[in-house]
Amino acid sequence: xxxxxxxxxxxATISVFLLITSIFLWWSDKxxxxxxxxxxQQLHLNLAKHLxxxxxxxKEGVFDYQALSNLFHTLMVMGxxxxxxxxxxxxxxxxxxxxxxxxxxxxxxxxxxxQLMNFPKSLPVYGSDPKNPEKQKIFSVxxxxxxxxxxxxxxxxxxxxxxxxxxxxxxxxxxxxxxTLLGVSTLILFLVLMVVLFAxxxxxxxxxxxxxxxxxxxxxDLTRSGYSPMPWNRDSxxxxxxxxxxxxxxxxxxxGQFEVLQELDNRRRTLLTDLSHDxxxxxxxxxxxxxxxxxxxxxxxxxxKARFIQISLNNAQNxxxxxxxxxxxxxxxxGQVKVNKETFPVAELIHDVVAKFTLxxxxxxxxxxVSPDSKNAMVSADIGKLERVLTNLIENAIRHTPGGGHVTLxxxxxxDGIAISVADSGVGIPETELxxxxxxxxxASNSQKDxxxxxxxxxxxxxxxxELNSATLQVSSVLGKGTCFSFVLPVPD
Length: 493
Description:
- By secondary structure, this protein is of the alpha+beta class.
- The chain folds into three domains: 44-159, Beta-Lactamase; 240-333, Signal transduction histidine kinase, dimerisation/phosphotransfer (DHp) domain (Helix Hairpins); 342-489, Heat Shock Protein 90 (2-Layer Sandwich), CATH 3.30.565.10.
- It has helices at residues 5-43, 47-54, 56-59, 65-78, 110-118, 161-217, 222-225, 239-295, 302-333, 346-356, 358-363, 383-399, 458-468; strands at 82-88, 93-96, 126-128, 136-146, 149-158, 342-345, 367-371, 378-381, 406-414, 417-424, 474-478, 482-489.
- Helix 9 runs parallel beside helix 13 (458-468).
- It is an enzyme of class 2 (transferase).
């Protein structure tokens, strides 16, 4: 049978409680017995001395052992809790008041006797029990002299065998009743307190367990689980509080990732819908003109045929460009793009890219320039990806700049790298649209239209490519005055 945490904790606590209670009762009985023996031995410390001084047989040192035995018997009748023994100076038992066969020892150890006589305040002192060699008892002792010569000792056991038997029976009955009452009462009280205490201690863990179960049952979808973060104390030293905080953090992280995935999924759905529309337009145009050529080939003039073929080619090129951008963005976002960074003079690359747009800029009467012409600026980047970004930015700048305007590329060394910007004097972008300019499929409300189809993926691709080059593509714009795209490339170490 498997036990829950509450049951295991209760069982362990009960076991420890019973062990501690047993040790305490044993120690309490031992201390009580020691105190009782100390008091009794102190009370009868001079008993043997008085008997020696008051009895002529012992006082004169003339020993009639039979008479002495009778005396011991008489004294035991008057004091049944005493046992009397007369010892010689070596500790041998010469006479006693016991029945035949009761005395098991013939000699008493003199070390405790001398200890009691020399240090009477260090009580209790335990001596040999002639009737039970395995036990020791408290005693009273006095030396017996004859003409100043030591003859032996009067050895009196305090609490004899008969006394022990009666006391043991009474103590057993009394202790059993007391311990039973104490044990039952204590156990009941302890169980009640334990149930209340453990219920209070395990309540937070139970709440946390229920919360975890609800989240798991909802397949970790917090909108369906109904879970709300519990107010755990992050600074607490309680492990349950720390575990609750960690669970809240984990749930928040899962919820954040879930929301990001949902947002990405929605954006992908929207992107797929928009791209499907964009793909349909050139494809429909391409199909329409080809069908016209196929159906009216005999009636069309050579000039119309050439025009229709050129339009079809333009639509095919637009369709290919759009598909290439879709695959490029998907390839970048999948994290499979390899970056081959190398060190090179960025000015040479910029001049090469600018040269490709010189004729196009002249056709629109746009001034295209590089300022300042710094040939010593070295950067660490992927040349192919940087060229792709510059090409897209310059092409966008020329498309959105009216005739007579200008497009300027700047190279500015900075403390953290080489800053490169592409600025134009075109139509600009509304401030409300700047935050969304890098979103896929986004096109500004003032986008300039031309014969080519622009799917709105160029800036999104540029931003991803610059992130791969450890740079951030930024934009600033004033409506009607122009736009500036900029980024900072790291310099080689």
